[in-house]
Design brief:
With 214 residues, this protein is an alpha/beta fold. Helices cover 61% and strands 12% of the residues. The protein contains ten helices and five strands, in the order H-H-H-H-E-H-E-H-E-H-H-E-H-E-H. Helix 9 links the parallel strand 4 and strand 5. Helix 1 runs antiparallel to helix 2.
Length: 214
């Protein structure tokens, strides 16, 4: 039976070497990268997010955990690339954290999980303007635009994307997904989003459903 806890603990501690070793061990046992992400990396980062919200850890601790997660991902990258090349592409996604917001840990995990699931992801990073989202979506012929916010003061920039898409006659061309700690599903729906992701796993499932409907 796979021991995901070893990798979870390494990521939470921010131990890059231990995380890489634990990921390699799981791969050697025949565990697929997607399963490792879903059952170890995503839960570890979710736990770090909860601890940060409860002020039990500092931002530096979260960044160390992110680096440990990336170390594990680097070990899995060759196999993920092989699997990605043989898997059908589910769709093209433009992803980013909305203007004014510099939090991107959760968004980074979603990007990784989407790529592992077969999406072509164009990650614009953080503090992304509405215009940049739209320009990139048109440039890469995106199917879905994913927008994240981690602060209530920045989440109110998200509806501007919906408004501008409507004003430009582009709303029917792209599906829009909102996510982030302060975002509620009712609010996302009211603002005109096509989907909402409460956490990493739910977000990926929403993207998959929307890609099928596209």
């Amino acid at each position: 039976m796979a021991n995901f806890q070893e990798l979870i603990d390494a990521v939470i501690r921010g131990d890059e070497a231990a995380a890489a070793a634990a990921a390699k061990k799981l791969l050697d046992e025949g565990i697929e990268p997607t399963r490792i992400i879903n059952e170890a990396l995503a839960p570890a980062m979710a736990e770090m997010g909860r601890r940060f919200e409860r002020l039990e850890v500092f931002l530096s601790d979260s960044l160390l955990a992110t680096d440990a997660m990336k170390a594990a991902m680097k070990v899995m990258e060759p196999q993920m690339l092989r699997e990605k090349s043989s898997a059908p592409k589910l769709g093209v996604v433009v992803l980013g954290t909305i203007e004014g917001d510099v939090h991107d840990i959760g968004k980074n995990i979603v990007a990784t999980m989407l790529e592992a699931s077969g999406f072509e992801v164009h990650d614009l990073g953080r503090d992304v303007s509405v215009a940049a989202f739209i320009t990139k979506a048109q440039e890469v012929k995106a199917d879905i635009i994913g927008v994240s916010a981690l602060m209530t003061t920045t989440m109110y920039n998200m509806p501007r994307l919906i408004k501008d898409l409507k004003d430009m006659g582009l709303k029917d061309k792209f599906k829009v997904v909102f996510g982030g700690a302060p975002v509620l599903p009712e609010w996302a729906e009211e603002m005109g989003a096509d989907g909402y992701g409460k956490d990493f796993t739910q977000a990926v499932n929403v993207f998959k459903k929307l890609s099928v409907k596209k």
